[in-house]
Amino acid sequence: MPELVVASKTETLKFTSGIRAIFQDSKGNYWFGSQNEGVSFYDGKSFKYFTTNDGLSNNQIRSIQEDTNGRIWFGTARGVSVYDKKSGVTNYLTKTSEPKYDWNETNGDLWFYAGEEDGISRSDGMDVNYLIFPKPKNKSPASTYGVTDISKAKDGKVWIATYSALFSYDGNKIDIFENEKLNLEENKVLHIRSVLADSKGRIWIGNNGIGVLLKEGETTINFSEKKNLIHPKSTRNGNKSEPGTLEHVFAIEEDLEGNVWFGDRDTGAWKYDGKTLTNYSIGDKTSSPMTWTIYRDNKNNMLFGMADGNIYRFNGKVFEKLF
């Protein structure tokens, strides 16, 4: 590690703001992205930190990825930062003044949501392009298209969640899924916070308010409603939910066995094994139940990044605090 990232070093993880991103690189090192304290790098021995003081474009880290050359890419709230062991940090501020409307003119498997409201950044490891979303024709004035999550399907299709619509891109064509296409009634408002394309080809869409939508082929259902996990008196918006509900889903991930995990803002973690849903509390009664991110590492551990800055691992029975 070059000197610029070892300005601070600790034996335990010292973030107090939420863990928004977890990533394990090809060498087995962990990278943790925080809500407003930058990045921590863990080599199995100690935690090293770097922030805007060390060259990051912003201290809110929304995603972490690795390219084929082993460089680490951070999607921040303001632009994309790249970490290279030899040269340190390089920043790419999104060129919103030079957007691309034809996505097929661009290349790359690295996708970022870096603070823009109407598009997404894409990189091939060299160039970073800003791609504009084709908006639904009947969009309401209140609709916003800030990206909240990205999931890559095993068929290569990229699924991009924004607050007001879900987009998919297969390398040739962009499809838009809004209220009508997702089979929503008029009084149900999309507020998407998470998306997962699972190993069975299903698309799980986590909302802040109306719970989980499940898209299988051309059919979409409200999964939370079907499982009676929307409270009868729910306002179906951002208001706090009652225990035992699945209404505010900020994270979705699949484990090695094919179980789908949901991280709810108010009610902790949920595991769905195809038949049964099990609800787990994470941490003690004083800690926030909100899960910002769920990550499956190289050894298939399920790691949960929490709003209070802690990380937990599910050991098959309970959650144990790491680091």
Q: What's the number of extended β-strand segments?
A: 28
- What is the global morphology? globular
C-alpha end-to-end distance: 20 Å
Cross-sheet strand order for the largest sheet: 1-5-4-3-2
| Number of H/I helices | 1
Can you describe what's shown?
By secondary structure, the protein is mostly beta strands. It is built from one helix and 28 strands. It has one helix at residues 223-226, and strands at 8-10, 19-24, 30-34, 39-42, 47-50, 61-66, 72-76, 80-84, 88-92, 110-112, 119-123, 128-132, 147-152, 158-162, 166-169, 174-177, 192-197, 203-207, 212-216, 219-222, 249-254, 260-264, 268-272, 277-280, 291-296, 302-306, 311-314, 319-321. It starts with 7 loop residues before the first strand and ends with a strand. Residues 1-5 have low confidence and may be disordered.
